[in-house]
Amino acid sequence: MDSAWGTALIALGGTLVGAAVSLFGGIWQQRRNEKVAEANRRTVLRETSLERIAEELFAIIRHAESMPHQRTPAHEHLAWEKTLWEHLSRIEMATLRLDDPELLAGIHDMCSLIKDWDRLQPAAWPREVVTGAPQHAIASIRAHMIGMPLPRPGRDIQKIRAAREAADEYERVAAEETRLATEEMRRSSST
Questions:
Q1: Alpha helices (H) along 64-148
Q2: Considering the entire predicted model, what is its pTM?
Q3: Which of 34, 48, 140, 163 is most buried, taking the most CB atoms under 10 A from its CB?
Q4: CA nearest to 128, candidates 77, 173, 164
């Protein structure tokens, strides 16, 4: 009888160990499947965002064809700029799902150049800005999607950045001159 009880206890122990291993294995596999599913979901969201950003960048390039000029009525100029800002807003929304910091920084940089489209003249003409920056961003997205390093900014982007630096410096100097002139007027009026 003792050997029967021993055999039964050993069988019960083996069954419990097998059940525990099976249970923990099932839990581990389920967690792993959930992680894989979450990674797949994020990949789909990221790729959808990149496609949306690329579509908006292509739309900006097409929109540049109807860019206003000096003789364009103010209401048409404002309508054109409003459409440009709508494209840029949709790009900003789509970038919320991106997790590559280098690509994200590159897209934000190109969008900031596009936002300055009309203040960089004559160093960079508006059409250069509104077509060059999106083209570089599209090239960056393409490189990212195929696993290549992001392209370095070409001469056109370097020229646009230099134009922005010059515009920023001009505005800084103008603001300082205005401040000094205002102080001088205050001093003159108080004496």
A1: 74-94, 101-115, 126-145
A2: 0.71
A3: 140
A4: 164
